[in-house]
Amino acid sequence: MRLSLCTITFRHHLLSIRDIADFARRAGFDGIELWGVHARNQGPGEHRAWLAAQGLAVPMISDYLPLDADAEAFARRVEEMGEMARAWGAPRIRTFAGRKGSADTGERERAFLTGRLREAAARLGDRGLRLLVETHPGTLADTTASLVRLLDEAPEPALRVNFDLLHVWEGGDDPLLARRRLAGRIDYHHLKNVRARRDLAVFRPANVYAAAGRREGMVPLFEGVLDYDRLLRALPAGAEGSLEWFGDRCHEVLAADLAAVRRCRAGRLEEAPDEAPRLGRRRAG
C-alpha cells in the first residue's frame, strides 16, 4: 500500500516544503498530499522535480471547489485547479460535496450540486485528472447511500471517491461494507482515528483549523475506536492513501503510525477475512 502524509498536518507549523519532504523521506512515506493553499503558494516549478528526486510523489491535492459560485467563477476555479494539479504532477484533486448534510439538502439544490461536480469532473477528466469527493459529515457524501446516489446521478468516469474510513463510520456505515458498495469507485483513502464517538467533534473544521483548537481525542491510528489492524488487512494490495493527522507530536505520531501500518500490511494482509470486521478496538487478553 502506497502511503503519504498530508501537509495540512503542518498547518500551524513554520516549516518549508523541503523540511516536510525531508521528514517524509526519512520516515519512509511514498509521497506528500498537498493541501490546496500550500500547493498554490509553494511554486511547483521549483519543487516538483526536487520531490521526485527524493523518491516522493504528490498523489493528491486536497482542495475545495466553490460549487455555489457563479458559472464563470466556477469554471475559472476548475481550470486553475487543473493547472495546479498538472504542475505538481498530481493525478487527483479532492473536494467536498457541498456544505450541508444530505438530510438538509433539498432536491433542487442536490441536483445543482451534483451537476456542478459532474461538470468539474468532466473538465478535469479531459486533462487526465480525477476529481475525488470525500466521505465527510455535513456534505452530500455523509452516508454511503447518499454518496452512491450522487455518483449514480453524475456518471462521470473521472468522478471518484476519497474514502475516509473514520467519517464513513461516523455516518453510521460499516467501512468494509461501504467499500464493497462503492466497489470500483474508490480511488484514495484517508486514515485517522478517534478515541471515542463522543470525541468526533474534534474533527469539525472550525476546531481543526483553529490554532488553539482542541486536540484531545485525536489518537494514533491503532489506539482509537476503529480497529485498523483488521480494516487495513481488508484493503487491496494496490490501495493508496494518506495518514491524516491533525494532532500534536506530528513527526513522532506519523512516523510511528506509518511503521505500524507497514507491519500490519506486510505480516497479515493474506489473512484478511471475508466477513465485516468488528469495528471497535480489540483489547488485550
The total count of helices amounts to 11
- The CATH homologous superfamily is termed Divalent-metal-dependent TIM barrel enzymes
Name the overall outline: globular
Helix content: 40-55%
Neighbour order of strands in the largest sheet: 1-2-3-4-5-6-7-10
**Rg calc:** 18 Å
- What CATH first level would be assigned? Alpha Beta
Structural class: alpha/beta
What is the architecture at the second tier of CATH? Alpha-Beta Barrel
> How many strand elements?
10
Count up the domains: 1
CATH topology: TIM Barrel
Percentage of residues in strands: 5-15%
Keywords: Isomerase
Domain Xylose isomerase-like TIM barrel: 22-247
Organism: Aureimonas flava
Protein name: Sugar phosphate isomerase/epimerase
Task: Explain what the structure shows.
There is one protein chain. By secondary structure, the chain is α/β, with parallel strands linked by helices. The chain has a single domain (2-269), classed as Divalent-metal-dependent TIM barrel enzymes (TIM Barrel, Alpha-Beta Barrel), CATH 3.20.20.150. Helix content is 40%, strand content 14%. The chain is built from eleven helices and ten strands. The protein has helices at 17-27, 36-41, 44-53, 71-88, 107-125, 144-153, 165-170, 175-181, 205-208, 228-231, 250-268; strands spanning 2-6, 31-35, 61-62, 92-95, 130-134, 159-164, 186-191, 193-194, 218-219, 240-243. An eight-stranded parallel beta barrel has the order 1-2-3-4-5-6-7-10, surrounded by four helices. Helix 1 links the parallel strand 1 and strand 2. The longest helix has 19 residues, at 107-125. The chain is globular. The model is unreliable at 269-285 (pLDDT under 50).
